[in-house]
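User:
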Amino acid sequence: MKIAITGKGGVGKTTLASLLSHIFANEGKKVIAVDADPDANLASALGIQKDVAEKIRPIAEMPELIEERTGAKVGSMGGLFKLNPRVEDLPEGIGYHMDNITLLIMGKSKAAASGCYCPENVLLRRLLRHLIVERGEVIIVDMEAGIEHLTRGTAESVDAFIVVVEPGQRSIQTAKTVKNMADGLGVKKVFVVANKVRNFDDLDFIKKNIHNMEIAGVLKFNESIMSADIKGSSPYIYSPESVKETKEIKENIEKSLYQQ
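Assistant: Predicted structure:
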């Protein structure tokens, strides 16, 4: 299963990514959790202690590795460097390992556009393609509010693209934009997860405004999620209700995919 999760900032993408990662791992599956959001918080959501998480270096901030694999220095533009660098050993070599989960933090290229041909961005995109297209583990990618990280070939290999929304116009508009972008890249399945739902009116608002997008499930507004964040722990431990809801989301996605 290869899952990419996106949505407007603050809607709960990282919470969902961490819950799904733990649920798959608890089933005995090997999981690679990828933090592809520059505002990297997946380590904390997975329950990695703050002092440990702060020592995990984003790949974009590993100049020695980038130069070794691409043949060019970080931040250089133009010139000659490898466009297909070797990456298959990176999850085992530089990932942070906890039980059945390996965490990779991508970081952000300092060159302006995500589509630029700077060496660090080429390495990140090649690694993401390798993970989604070529690996056998469960891959959970926590993305920023868009799909700029994905090329067509990578996007076509994503099994489920999840857009997390909350009750609100800006969140819904982001979801619609992402859906159009995903369609253009050949993503087969785009699901919506409704998060921070407080009552029937919230859910009804989301259903009425997402039009033809498929809802995979609902995560209710839950104070225990906030408690986990305050304590720097995982919602998987602090919010059993959210775990149950996420298991239902996972099952709904699997059911939808298997019915194709």
